[in-house]
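REQUEST FORM: STRUCTURE PREDICTION
Request ID: SP-0412
Submitted by: Lab K.M.
Chain count: 1
Length (residues): 154
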Amino acid sequence: MLFLSLHQKKMIELKQIQTNDLIPIRHAVLRKGMPVESCHFQEDNLSTTIHFGAYVDKKIVGCATVIKNRNSNFDTENQFQLRGMAILDGFQKQGLGEKIFRFCEQKFTVPNTVLWFNARQNAVPFYQKLNCKTQGNAFMIEPIGLHYLMYKHY
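STATUS: Completed
RESULT:
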């Protein structure tokens, strides 16, 4: 658990959460207008999957999921996939996304680890600021849109 000051009057709490805690965030941000069932990922309940939530004044406003998952594009043995990272609209552009990303890094990365993910085209600049790189060309994930394979090697 990590507490950080967002503004003078608000506190951020980052902590491990359960799948059901993050479904409303995924639905509001990543799957707007789609059935809530589309917010459940196949890997959500694996023992090697961990979910994280960002709380502002005890209200969940962001989330991310980290899955132990290999991608054949990388030779590194130790690989984790970041998936479903989302911040509610009213809380974006306040540094919460970076805080969640850094929190995930602290929990999973050791030397010779790759953290990889499929980033929406509009999120690529955000991840590039966190020293993540793209691999290959854009690809379509229907019905969501263009994505890039991105990664960070530790």
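NOTES: The mean pLDDT is 92.
Reviewed by: T.R.
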